[in-house]
Amino acid sequence: MANREKNKKTLLELVKLPENSCCADCGAADPDWASCTLGIFVCLNCSGTHRNLPSVSRIKSIRLDFWDDELVQFMKANGNRAAKNLYEKFVPVFYYQPQPDDCEVLREQWIRAKYERMEFTEEKTERPYTAGVYEGMLWKKGKDNGQFLERKFVLSVHDFTLKYYKEDESKGPKATISVKDLNATFQPEKIGHAYGLQITYCVDDHTRNLFVYHKNGRVNLWNFLFFFPALFPIILIPWITRSYLKEGYMEKTGPLQREPFKKRWFILDSLDRKLLYFKTRLDAIELGVVFIGSENHGYSVRECVPKGTRGNKWKCGVIVETPDRQFVFMCEQERDQREWVEALKTVISKPMMPQDYTTEANIRRRR
Ligand SMILES: [Zn+2]
Which GO biological process categories is it annotated with (predicted)? Predict the structure, then answer.
């Protein structure tokens, strides 16, 4: 019994050391779990992924589980820094390393690559995802209806494009998307599938959304692992994935602010400084877009209780001032209102980059 207490105390001291104080896999603070086969401390979320890899990792709670002397010594001899030196020694510079808020898919890719496939323990010149052309089937939501149909997707690393085809391939691709103009976010809840993905790209200055999922994601994990890094090579992830700063419904009125409010699905893309809105959250094409510039250029945001508005069911107002127009949005709850103001402030407080001026001019021209 004495050992049990002593071992627990040692573990709690170990996890407080700077080298162990963040999750070994995603960097989240104060990990509460440990892999006693890999000798690392991880957060609750990453521990879940480790549990699915019994051949390489065994997870224990550092507070609740029993630890014998030998295992505690093993943890002491290893730890997160030692594991990083071993398992992350040759991570390519472009390789995406997940953050604490990233979804399960990205974490799982990273953890499997590190410990199961040991991809980064040695220097390699050829990696599977740097080869040429990949293709596979994804289920894609129809543009104007909710029906998902199986479509062939082809990713070419040579010309850096993603194409997809309808049943009759002889007609050529339905779309050819330059990977540079493409954004992909994992959206399991929105699409209603564990491996649901929202692919966004621009056509003539308009945003187009594709909602897809891979059928075998859950059932056959290997199939998925082969397919997904193929379709979205993980080295491209920094190019193509950005999580939207905030998404959700708000009500919106027209330019005179006397038009009736309509409920719209909003997406704030902080990288492109765009607040996009759609009729519903699974719409292929946006209804409109508001450019969000910086404070120095006359943009601001604040909470408000607007007077004289009508048709709004919701009461928590957000006002966005732009040099040429004031926008009024209504949120259902104070929490949404606060989150929208905070998210918009984050964008407004960032200085504008040269390309932002082009985006701003294009959006104004469209109006
Ligand atoms: Zn973690």
Answer: heart development
